[in-house]
Amino acid sequence: MGVVLEDLQDTIRNKEFLKKVVPVEEAVTWIQDGMVLGVSGFALFGEPKFFLQKLAERGKQENFKVDLYTGASMGPSADGAMVESDLIGFRLPYQANPILRKQINKGKVTYIDQHLSQTSESLRQDIIGPIDYAVIEATAITEDGLLIPSGSIGNSPIFIEQAKNIIIEVNLNLPKEYEGIHDIYIPELQGERNPIPMKHPSDRFGEKGIRIDLDKVRGIIISNENDSPSPLFEPNEITQEIANNLLSFLDEEIELGRLTEELAPIQSGVGSVANAVLSGMKHSRFKNIVIASEVIQDGVFDLIEAGVVKFAYATAFSLSEKRVASLKSDLAKHQDKIMLRPQEISNHPEVIRRLGIISFNTAIEIDIYGNVNSTHINGTHIMNGIGGSGDFARNAKISIFVTPSTAKDGKISTIVPFVSHIDHTNHDVDIIVTEYGYVDMRGLAPREIAEQLIENCMHPIYREQARRYFEEAKQVSGGNTPHILHKAHAWHLHFQKHGTMLLDE
Amino acid sequence: MGVVLEDLQDTIRNKEFLKKVVPVEEAVTWIQDGMVLGVSGFALFGEPKFFLQKLAERGKQENFKVDLYTGASMGPSADGAMVESDLIGFRLPYQANPILRKQINKGKVTYIDQHLSQTSESLRQDIIGPIDYAVIEATAITEDGLLIPSGSIGNSPIFIEQAKNIIIEVNLNLPKEYEGIHDIYIPELQGERNPIPMKHPSDRFGEKGIRIDLDKVRGIIISNENDSPSPLFEPNEITQEIANNLLSFLDEEIELGRLTEELAPIQSGVGSVANAVLSGMKHSRFKNIVIASEVIQDGVFDLIEAGVVKFAYATAFSLSEKRVASLKSDLAKHQDKIMLRPQEISNHPEVIRRLGIISFNTAIEIDIYGNVNSTHINGTHIMNGIGGSGDFARNAKISIFVTPSTAKDGKISTIVPFVSHIDHTNHDVDIIVTEYGYVDMRGLAPREIAEQLIENCMHPIYREQARRYFEEAKQVSGGNTPHILHKAHAWHLHFQKHGTMLLDE
């Protein structure tokens, strides 16, 4: 590496920690078959890249597997190199990797798909773990031994608290300006737990870094890796239309006096619709917006610079190449407007409910009564996982789900009589938006929801067959949510057999 | 009534309120067709019995309907007399009345089945309402104008806060000892909301009654009604076995060091299993138990008297005839051990998560991957509603669902390949208990859950056909949750056609 200890003193500012520096080649040998690793990282930011790559290299030579606990999906080292080396036998709480997904769907990797706020509780309750090694990327170690995380916090605080051993990857190549944007608060054990002392999103109630028990630090390795950029999610015509409809809904809420132009704290997923929504806010009447989300993406920085967003917190950055390049100066400029928190806090039911967050998330399919599938294809094959969508949808002031009305060039209707899998029941869904419009389900009974979803959100080519199903179900079965069980999945089955959900084709 | 104002001074202790007393016959005429009523009551306790009966009598003569908002299901006046007079056009957030259920399932009554913690938020957000009249039963009005509720609090505080007009039914026949057991706390609007200041279940942080805006009080009526007792739910052999299995699970958790003999605050539903569990606790190693639930039933008083329960709070009583008869002296004896709170607090995600509650609720059916249906028969006909089960299951430290393994003399297996309706996804279910055993789903992947549910919880006569489905699904479809969509509801369809889910009969 060519790094000598003297060079590190500005970054590892505590002498006792400095003594712990070891070569990465040594540290990776500590990992044994069957061990549980709690690894920093949430989406693409914050994984201990160098360590995981070296571990993956070792995995190509040796036959061993580990249980991998993370914040969410990971960058190219965990959800790339490690997967390719077939190192993962057990994974939680979320993943988004095509190879790993295949292994999970074959039943070869045990995968626990969890609400992202709950992994920390499972660890405290000894349901999962114990963690043999926490492996955590750091920007710096302070004089008094606080670990300054990098571009995500995720589950790092609880991994560090619960792990038997800690390996710190100090990355010399990260913006030093990460220091100061973190707010680390760890709830006490249930039974002796205090209220989370957040009243307003910008309240700072934690520490600037993660407190570390020096005795548990087995080694510190030094790296020089870059943050991993995310792809650009440019809107297309359909996602732009969805975003427009969503913005119209928010506008309508202002007209009705139920929201002000400051809206309420916004949680948004990542992707083309989310970007189009954020982009649309730039030229809207909305002002002094607060973001209280899982990730801070490009659009949030754009809105801060446009003076539309006044404050944003999340548990991780998710930035394109352009914003990764400017991150150092962006952080310097906006340090008082940006904060990262543990995912246990960003996704905590207590916080989401108290703040009254407006959340929007993406659905894979939705049934005519407003139940949402956000994870499984055909009821069997998992895509990613429920992630934080349940934490937010259940507790949000307004829970919005977006989806294009069709998939596979119109061969699949995303609105179906009966979803093949449910992640969010209609109790937790307020607004559904497609490119055709939106339905405000609040205060509607299931039959009213069905009528409106069919007429306002469904693609027109599917409406007639949906009306037929709904009418027949009312006639034949009746009930609060009329269904004809033997036809409930007929659209899915027709697609499996004929390549389209259009029943007449 | 034969009551003169002088007699009332001990009960209505504020002179300004005393001036508002009117005959019930006058008050019921204020209710117009299409009005929204927010009525006190949760389960059988606390409804304004006299007013509702008189309103129902008027409803027999006149043709009008109202929107009825309540705490949960109601006693014989609302969910009896009013239903029989066909007075209800719209109902939320929960009901359990056979006639009303029929009207809902015919699509004749609009019914919004809500998480019980969320009605208050919907009102604050102007999604439902506005409430024309809050009609609230009271034990007393204090000198400084606090309304002392009776045997439930439910949604009364938010109804009173949000209503345009208030009618108070002062019931002279209730135990005066109700006064002092209530703790009324109303969260602020989202955005300016403080943490709910409860750290321990017995913390008192509210007022002893509900603050009333005198100007909104249109009238006070005087009644002399009795509290309504609930049926006795005696355990049978099967529910006793379920309770034993549940108690074994708790015992095992103590052995594993994950719980102490004080367990964690307990939420339990009502019914035969719940009573058997409470009864079983009397002779267990458990001690210093805290109840933090929706309802306080007979068994809780028994456990207080046995020295096993040290404190209990809920939003309502649900008591048999025997305990209704002794309530006056029970309250006097145990006033420091019993507390009623608004349902927004008892069911609040913030509180449930912070305290780390152990919840147990009843399922109608459960699929092999642990998804729970607790509301709909055959996917179409609603029984009661989700009630508070979602508030507790999502946020509990340990979320337990109980069900006998079969229904209808074995013709229905309550564990099926694919539930016909989902209220609780397997993310929110930890333990499933039947009379055959329990499965601890925590840390298990879906396929592992299926194997264990089939072998440990399912009735033996259904196991072979379940194994066949599961094996075929793994072979033919694969995936994280293997299913064969065209056979997913075959058991339900077989029952519809042949009167049994046993496929070979």
Give structural notes.
- 2 copies of one chain form a homodimer.
- In chain A, a hairpin with a 3-residue loop joins strand 20 and strand 21.
- In chain A, helix 17 packs antiparallel against helix 18 (460-476).
- Helix content of chain A is 32%, strand content 19%.
- Chain A has 2 domains: 5-223, Glutaconate Coenzyme A-transferase, CATH 3.40.1080; 237-464, Glutaconate Coenzyme A-transferase (3-Layer(aba) Sandwich).
- The first copy, chain A, contains 19 helices and 27 strands.
- With 505 residues, chain A is of the alpha/beta class.
- Chain A has a 7-stranded parallel β-sheet with strand order 4-3-2-1-5-8-10, with helices on both faces. In chain A, strands 11-17-22-26-27 form a 5-stranded mixed β-sheet. The first copy, chain A, has a 3-stranded antiparallel β-sheet with strand order 6-7-9, with helices on one face.
- Chains A and B meet through strand 4, helix 15, strand 21, helix 16 and helix 19 of A and strand 4, helix 15, strand 21, helix 16 and helix 19 of B.
